[in-house]
Specification:
Order of helices and strands: HHHHH
Number of strands: 0
InterPro entries: bHLH_dom (IPR011598), HLH_DNA-bd_sf (IPR036638), PRE (IPR044293)
Family: Belongs to the bHLH protein family.
GO molecular function: protein dimerization activity
Protein name: BHLH domain-containing protein
Pfam families: bHLH_ILI (PF23174)
Length: 85
């Protein structure tokens, strides 16, 4: 009986897939068309990988900028304050 309670209903899966679809830029641009859950999960993984690459790139660029800054400058203080928030 407990395994029955732990199962996710098809309705719940459809609701979650629909929510996920609304979060992905590619599927929002595509319109109201419904993608398969497998395709949507694959697109989600690709999107997360892309976001990770963007974060890594921005981190590298920020590190390069910080390395060339005078640590007592107003710009350096601004960067530090942004990183704290």
């Amino acid at each position: 009986m407990s395994s029955r309670r732990s199962r996710v209903s098809e309705e719940e899966i459809n609701r979650l897939v629909s929510k996920l679809q609304s979060l992905l830029p590619e599927t929002r641009q595509r319109g109201a068309g419904r993608a398969s859950a497998a395709k949507l999960l694959k697109e989600t993984c690709n999107y997360i990988r892309s976001l990770n690459r963007d974060v890594d790139d921005l981190s590298d660029r920020l590190s390069a900028i910080i390395a060339t800054m005078d640590s007592s400058s107003a710009e350096a203080e601004m960067v530090r304050s942004l990183l704290r928030s």
